[in-house]
Amino acid sequence: MKVFYHKHKKLLLLLSFIIIIGALIFLYKIPEIQKHGEKLNNVTHRTIAFNRVKKTKTLKVLTHNNSTSYFIYKGKPMGFHYDLAKNLAKQNGWKLKITVEDDLQKAIELLNNEEFDLIAMDITKTKKRKSKIYFTNQIGYTKQVLVQRKKRGRKKTDSAKYITKIGELTHKKIYIQKGTVFKKNLLHIRDISLTDFEIIEDSNHTMEELILMVSSGQIDYTVCDKRVAEANATYDSRIDYSLNLSVEQKLAWAVPIGEDSLLNIINNWLTHFIKSKRFAVLEKKYFKTKKKSFYTDKDYLPIRGGKLSPYDDLIKKYSKKIGWDWRLLTAVIYHESRFNPNANSWAGAVGLMQLMPSPAKKFGCKNLYDPEQNISAGTKYLKYLENKFDSTTVSHEDRIKFALAAYNAGLGHILDAQKLAKKNNKNSNSWSNNVDTFIVLKSNPKYYKDPVVKYGYCRGKQTFKYVEDIFYLYDNYLNLVKK
Fold first, then answer.
1. Is 168 labeled as catalytic in the residue annotation?
2. What pLDDT sits at residue 31?
3. N or C: which end of the chain has fewer CB within 10 A?
4. Can you list the alpha helix ranges (DSSP code H) found in 274-342?
């Protein structure tokens, strides 16, 4: 052993030195390793979104404003992904809170900044994105396609070449929405096909707006997902999307990375829902059914800037007189009559705002079927009800909620609910989780027979839902319609 030691003394000393240095480096790196381990552990077991949804019973969703995701048509929120998210929320007893974000990269940032729980839109599954978000199960498949005007039915002055193969794109300009995956694929196509076409990234228009620009002849070519093209083709017969530019790609939703519990709930629901008749109906409705019988008026096409109702101008005029947002008043009218000026209820309410004869007469409406007279009297009545609640003690939003509740159930029932709230140590000047609780309880003998109650029994659940539905609709209008 001594002979071995003396013979290899220098080598052993060198090895000892290396081991000591390595140990010191390891000890120095321990805090960093622990920190990295904690980070990985947090990603693996992240439950921030899951706990928030569980606590608030509200699912906060990011989506696009387009004809596949979410839009307003004649006052009604619609869209394939909106309807899917609604079904998901309903299945789990959650409320749905929708926010529009047309920039996917920003949506992913907002998701991972713990501000939202789900991105509900067509997201192409890629390895790069997989490192930033958790994908749900597939909700469909798509390809990238070239959008151009159809060969037949063009104007004689239309000189744009109808493209049947990639090689014919030489010297052509292809417009794409900036920030999409289309540029990378087009660059690859240009490289392998040796086809010299120009790629123009547009930061001012969405994918669907570029499609409309192709249809109208402002530009000749754009690229989009096939599902978007399919949806647009159901109400615009001039576009062609027959040239595929990619292989089939998987589409999914996304939750924040690490949110296994929330992901499992959504995936379990998707597994069953995708096999259902309801899912098949939604796919047919948004991607296959021609909209000539559906989108009957181009003013209401599911694009930004569309009208809410045939009475937008009147609603803006009279909402201004009472200091209400016109979109809120529109939500009231949609809920009351679906914009039908000839609507009649079993109780005798008439017209756009479903006015009863007594308030109609009081506020100067001689012809309940006349849209302007009906809206004029209806808004005056709403303002009258709003003024019954003290502006010095009740917030503007709560006064509006009280007014809406009174419009639905009658002023007396709301005053009763305020008295019950005060008696039970709740805030009688606040609607949510205070007076609304007691308007619901006014269907219970214990409460409607209370000595402070003057107007007796009330179907309070209906009134509670009335206020909630109108504000839900109003939130949707705020998302998509400019003031």
1. no
2. 52
3. N
4. 277-287, 312-322, 326-337
- List the structure tokens of 353: 């705002």
The whole-angstrom separation of Cα 274 and Cα 361 is 52
Reduce the DSSP state of residue 91 to 3 states and report it: helix
Out of 336, 386, 397, 468, pick the active-site residue: 336
In this structure, is the dihedral angle defined by the CA atoms of residues 465, 468, 474 and 475, taken in order, positive or negative? negative
Judge whether 234 and 287 are in contact, CB under 8 Å: yes
Contacts of 327 (CB under 8 A, 6+ apart): 308, 474, 477, 478, 481, 483
CA distances from 231 to 58, 256, 286 (A): 29, 28, 6
Task: Classify the C-alpha dihedral 160-161-165-167 as positive or negative.
Answer: negative
pLDDT at 44: 52
CA 92 to chain centre: 18
The CATH number fitting domain 312-480, selected from 1.10.530.10, 3.40.190.10, 3.30.1490.110, 3.60.15.10: 1.10.530.10
pLDDT at position 296 is: 43
Q: Which residues share a beta bridge with 72? A: 77
The matching CATH number, chosen from 3.30.360.10, 3.40.50.300, 3.40.190.10, 1.10.110.30, for 144-246 is 3.40.190.10
Cβ atoms of 196 and 173 closer than 8 Å: no
Residue 314 identity (one-letter amino acid): L
Amino acid of residue 104: L
pLDDT at residue 75, rounded to an integer: 83
The Cα–Cα gap between 110 and 87 comes to: 23
Whole-structure pTM value: 0.76
pLDDT at 194: 92
What pLDDT, in 10s, does the model give residues 158-190?
Answer: 999 999 999 999 999 999 998 888 999 999 999
**Is 123 within 8 Å of 68 (Cβ atoms)?**
no
Ranges under pLDDT 50 in the chain: 4, 32-43, 292-296
For the chain, helix, strand, coil in percent to 5 are 50, 15, 35
